Please model this.
Amino acid sequence: MPQSKYLKYFKVLSLFNTKRTRDIFQVNPTIIPQREEAAETHINIFDYSADYLEEKKLDHVSDCFPLKDNGHISWINIDGIRKADVDAICNHFNIHMLIHEDIISVGQRPKMDEMPPILFCLLNMLYFNPNTGAVETEQISIILGKDFVISFQEDSKRDVFDPIREKLRALNSKLRQSKADYLCYALLDMIVDHYYVVMENIGELIEMLEEKIVRSSNTRALAEINNLRKELIVLKRNVSPVRDLINGFIRSDSDLLEERTTKYFKDIYDHIIQANDLAENYRDMMMNLQDLYLSNVNLKMNEVMKVMAVVTCLMAPATVIGGIFGMNFDGLPYIHHPYGFFIAFALMIIIPVWMIFAFRRRGWF
Model:
């Protein structure tokens, strides 16, 4: 085994993931971030109506231009963001330049904008990495227009929309019978529902950490508390603003939203309120775990100090007797007595034994 594998356990600071702290808090909205161009993009479209469905993958963004105003509902999902593709889409579908900038930006706060003729929302999909115990984010931009929904995702290998795709493939599903605003609702609802999956995993980590702290409160437990609190910050930062985003859809007077669909957005609003409350509860639990850790450390220290105090008290009689009879004076009593040593030794044993019984009678240990 290489020695470097074990050296990290001797470095206390290596237990605290400071790089994760920089990743979480290194967000400056005054600096224009540079997004790296996606290495590959995947363009998937669902063009459908109540009795019609066409699902296919496209090679170029321009191939989806004929879907505009074709009489069907179209969902254009682009995995992997490239500036040229975003420019082409925005120009063809009459999307404002500010929305174009939001799509290609990074580290944006979840928000909803109404810029006729479209509605735009930006938020993060959350994933839980079981290997690192980290909450991972993926920015998604959703554009709702007349009879079309365009979604931009950063990661081409994962999302949470497979149940929606299955519903679109079903002939009599409500998605097939509804307009584009209901598809937008379904996408947002699936993202919010997946927040609960991430929070369930976080809750399991908190439970295991609580058991670990009760068993042994060491430096590693403190490091896990610190790292888990960082993940809760990520969770809270992404969940809390979604409440205002959904509220924007509920309050909107846009012609793109039917009144019956607005009621469904109220259901998402209820879910995000509950998710926000759950995130607050987790944060309170982490504060309680930190207090529990400190209490256990103090209790352990008190136990050590109590043992040391008892040992010191038990050794005090022997120290006093040895100090008195060890003085260099001829007039000390029993200094020349034939049994003087045995008398002193007996006192050194009897007095501590009597002190032990006295301490136990008082319940001191």
Summary: The first strand starts at residue 42 and ends at 49. The mean pLDDT is 87. Residues 259-325 form the longest helix (67 residues).
